[in-house]
User: Fold this.
Amino acid sequence: METPHVLVLYAKITGELSANCWNTYLDQLSQDLRDKATSYVNWKDQHAYVFGKLLLMKAIEKYGYPPGDLSGIQYTAYRRPYLSADFDFNISHSGEYVMCAIGAGLRLGIDIEAVRSIDFEDFRNVMTPGEWKDIHNAKHPITTFFRYWTIKESAIKADGRGLSVPLLEVQVQRSHVQLGDASWYYQEFHHIKGSCLSIATDHEKFTVDWEEVDFYD
Assistant:
């Protein structure tokens, strides 16, 4: 059996776009997506939302969809978006980066988190005792916390129920995440400086390619 393949398109937010460029990108989206984008108060949140949709448009074109066509997006009962049973996609953004992962013949989830200062007390109920032990004993506890967080998030995003699944129930093992009776296999990536990044799928082995998109060109 051929090893499933995941393609990740990603973009960096390097500054606020000019009004002309911003409006050109907005015009590529449907009215409901434009309304959603402009509902965010902060320009960086607006850019992250729009970049995510533009990355998705580029990604699905590789799977035979017409360029720029997001009209077929539907949502599960848990508000997880989908387009086709033939492939799966997932979007994540944090800090300066926005990412869209896509692949055929598998379920997937991606999560990126910029490592930042946090109060562990605010997250007491998201890690198991063993995970907290690893975190507190680590050389860089906050980075280790976000490693666990992104692994768990990528798994529950692949699962499709998102944060309706308590993170405490997501058990991180050496190469997979156990969520009830299901196993989600993850890979971590370290090429985005200052961030933790994980991709989880329902296949034990999968390959990943990366393609950077520059929206400021």
In short: The CA atoms of residues 58 and 64 lie 11 Å apart. The domain at 5-212 is CATH 3.90.470.20 (Ribosomal Protein L22; Chain A).
